[in-house]
Design a protein that fits this description.
- This protein has 335 residues and is of the alpha/beta class.
- The chain contains 16 helices and ten strands.
- The chain has helices at residues 25-30, 46-53, 56-59, 72-81, 92-99, 147-158, 178-184, 197-204, 213-217, 229-234, 236-255, 258-265, 274-286, 298-310, 320-323, 327-334, and strands spanning 32-38, 62-68, 86-89, 106-113, 118-122, 138-140, 168-170, 190-194, 208-212, 223-228.
- The strands form two sheets. It has a five-stranded mixed β-sheet with strand order 2-1-3-10-4, with helices on both faces. Strands 7-6-8-5-9 form a five-stranded mixed β-sheet.
- Strand 6, helix 6 (147-158) and strand 7 (168-170) form a beta-alpha-beta unit.
- Helix 11 (236-255) crosses helix 16.
- Mean pLDDT is 90; it is low at 1-25.
Amino acid sequence: MKKKFIAAALAAVLAVSALPAAVSAEEKEELTEVTLNEVAHSIFYAPQYVAIEEGYFEEEGLKIDLVNGFGADKVMTAVISGEADIGFMGAEASVYAYQEGATDPVVNFAQLTQRAGNFLVAREEMPDFQWSDLKGKKVLGGRKGGMPEMVFEYILRKNGIDPQKDLTIDQSIDFGSTAAAFTGDDSAEFTVEFEPSATALEQEGAGYVVASLGVDSGYVPYTSYSAKTSYMEEHPEVIQKFTNGLQKGMEYVQTHTPAEIAAVIAPQFPETDLETITTIVTRYHEQDTWKENLVFEKESFELLQDILEESGELKERVDYDKLVTTAYAQKAAEK
């Protein structure tokens, strides 16, 4: 799996940002273009889409070309190859790349989410669900070594459940396809889903959310922004401007209602109706998903490595200062 981090780059497949009509032709020419490759296109990342839709990046002089990488391994490949300027994914990817001997380390400079964004969905309503109910059951899980799966296993261990012995976790299904697999094959009693898949399963009557991994895992550094050391050294002003714009998006979600947030980001999700977007944003908002600032603190990085160790994915611990910088986030928070 980790060899993917040094494989050839994945071609960009989805560009969704656009300049507002209010920006003049001259101003458009002055904007610095930045390619941002995201691990998935999800309402979970609402502050980022607020920053795009509200023009916060443009206010900083940046035009964001947003690409869906469809997985952290592919995002990291794009960053290492230079196809993407900035990657948005779980910070575990930077640890894996470093362990593989990356000569130009990918460094995390801003943390967006502080809780897991997925939910445990059961075939039946279970108002009194306990994690022990998973013993002896089959669950559709995530990719081995990926943050969704590792946090799931972290919760299981916290509840005295051995992920390898006490239940069966199917990790063979591609990211984004588990919901379809769940409805098409009744061999699994549970599935772990991001939004909007969790809500969609409920709306179809095909499943019921019985637990939030974000609530039950506690605060974890789930997703962050990173770039190659060389890019950050050559373009520190771009990283700072990007972080400034993102901080404005973070402040927006902290000071506005879920309905207001949903209305702003709706253009990013044309296939989802506003009511559903609002429901999903409310779920994330109520569980304190987004940080007040973008500072990736040392305590969070050490917790990440604890989770990697427990999952058997860490060769040796990495010094915080090698893979995290807080200078840009701290400056953005002070503005």
